[in-house]
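Researcher: Structure for this, please.
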Amino acid sequence: MRPPLVELRGIVKAFPGVVANAGVDLTIAPGEVLALLGENGAGKSTLMQVLAGLYRPDAGTILIDGAPADLRSPGDAIARGIGMVHQHFRLVESFTVTENVLLGQGERRFLLRPAADHARVARIAGAHGLTVEPRAVVRQLSVGERQRVEILKMLYRDARVLVLDEPTAVLTPQEVAPLFAAIRRIAGQGRAVVFISHKLDEVLAIADRIVVLRAGRVAGEAQPAETTPRALARLMVGHDVDRPPRPVAAPGAIVLELRGVDATGEGGRRALHAVSLAVRAGEIVGVAGVAGNGQRELAEVVAGLRPPEAGEICLDGVGIGHLDSRARWRLGIAYVPEDRLAEGLIAPFPLAENAVLRDYARPPVGRGPLFDRAAARARAAAIVERFQVRAPHVDTPVRHLSGGNQQRLLVGRETWRRPRVLVAMHPTRGLDVDATASVHRLLLSLRAEGVAVLLLSESLDELFALADRIAVLHRGRVAGERPTAAATREEIGLLMAGAVP
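Model: Predicted structure, token format:
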């Protein structure tokens, strides 16, 4: 067996009130795809950020090629062959692919060499199976193509260890296969790939070896051929995780209805075309579609964040298209946005203040011009308990919470007062199996209480598990709608591609 590229010995990393890594030992071998699993807050991302030079360990040793390495910055890590692709992309959207790849290279030039640079980026992309046009402007690329640019940035720097943090969380099913092919090709060249994910089926499909973290420590290691998703989930959370049953629906009257709604998206393009859709009380209507086909605009139109250009939006038969998001919230429309940090939470603010962002001006939190901090803390403590948000205390800044705990807080805040309508966009993105099951149970309980739920998800498994009906968006239009019990994945996939099955 070849010696490891990287060894982590006894890595300890703590933050105020939180021990993220408590003496972790890990080896990364050349030519392997190492999957790193763990529930939200288990310490996966922190451990890899230590390796990538973003954090300095409080204790422990990093060895690269058998020699101790003092990684004081990401630049030090990249110089030693360690590259990390983060879940949230770090690209300049107005730059081309090549310009993003070259950005921060530190090369001093007096003359630009665009043709040569484009050619070099194209060669690297072709050698690793990463199809992308070097001259394309990033804002024109799909999510999958942007991820390839992030990987290209690391390969251009000749990274020998490539860390991918939740690489499929924002990809459609059609984009996962090319990514996996590229990962296999990269590992086949003698590089190592660390694959951080919560998607157990994908881990079993791509990994050569699986390491599971729990509570900041290594809980176990497994070979994909010798384990199962259920066994991995048990190792991650310490108990069996079962999918909640979906009782037979008993939908009531129409609560939310869209009639011929048009909406404009980014850059002035028409994003929604004559969309008509209804959601009844006690019903979950799922919306499927390849990313960029109007899902985001649909969610924002219903939530009041994007005005409709034409058509009607009705709540209990009354038009609300002219109302803003605050007015719609007060009428009972709750919203879990696609990007929790950019649109749902304020990262530097404490948990307590984020818990009452919707209610800061209303009793008991808001008392005239005064803000009752004790009432805000009490509300936050109740959300923490009910939704199992793991945080040292309610005054912890939200940026110090794991992504899964941020999502639990957001879902808890939006559903604290039972809404009439819940618009949930990718509510389990980035969540571990236990947290995902918790959110699924919550959505089903809201359905049982008569809430109308509009669920937009990139996971067909999630839609088939929760939705009573599935509508498919293609190029901003409703391409079709099917009762879930009568639909097949093949049929929904054809509708997503614009074909009529």
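Researcher: Any notable elements?
Model: Residues 252-332+420-501 form a domain with the Rossmann fold fold (CATH 3.40.50.300). The mean pLDDT is 90.
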